[in-house]
Amino acid sequence: MTFSRRQVLKGAAALAATSFDARAQTHFYKSIKGDDGAPVPNYLVPADLTVDRLPGVVWAGTEAPDVIVVEFFDYNCPFCRKAAVDLEAIVKQDPEFRLGLVNNPILSPQSLEAARVQQATLKLFGPRAALALHLALFSSRQPNNRTTALAAAKRLGLDAEKIEVAAAGEDIGRVLERHRKLAESLGFTATPSFLVKTVGILGYPGPAAMRKMIASVRGCDQIACG
To answer: Rounded to two decimals, what is the model's pTM?
Structure first.
């Protein structure tokens, strides 16, 4: 499991400052266990906190899904790196699944730099290029920042000079600020965190647990049935 007791308590404290009444929430709305057997923190969020009108989301998978999972990630999060590989496999293997990717660069200024490059790539070259860059950044074991992100874009055959100029734009900053504010409102103080329907999930539970949640949504319209 990727979540410590300290992180759970920190997340609970952060929730108290969000736009909804955290005291009415529980961090264990549904009984879910990660691949390591530890309980997975999860809680209901207000139905209006969605990514429906959020700019800059990178989507992968079918455009007519029966299950949508939205990941909030940081490019220097080691657990996000593991999740990226697992979620890519689910996208490839599950024809009715859709994955949304939202930046939550809270671990370092360098994470924000990499997020700017990703958003500039999306703006200039579209979602396929942005998704390819996303996976390339998580395939590397070195810390991600502006330099490494631009180098990855160049290896993908993209115009890194144009991306660098676009990445510095105020419009990119505004998009990423909207990502940050939504993540904050959802109480997502851990990376990765996930939004599944109106449930927030803190930390990465592992591929088996994620597949089980997807199956539960299909079976009973909840992240866990019963």
So the answer is: 0.88
In this structure, what DSSP letter does residue 169 have?
S
Residue 221 corresponds to which tokens in the numbers above? 């319209």
* Token couple for 131: 């998704």
CATH classification (class only), 5-220: alpha beta
Q: Model confidence over 60-73: pLDDT tens digits? A: 999 999 999 999 99
Question: How long is the chain?
Answer: 226
Rounded-to-integer distance, Cα 114 and Cα 120, Å: 10
* Mean pLDDT (whole number) for 198-212: 97
What's the rounded Cα separation, in Å, for the pair 18 and 22? 7
DSSP summary character for residue 140: -
Q: Are 55 and 124 in contact, with CB atoms under 8 Å apart?
A: no
Task: Return d(Cα 82, Cα 80) in angstroms, integer.
Answer: 5
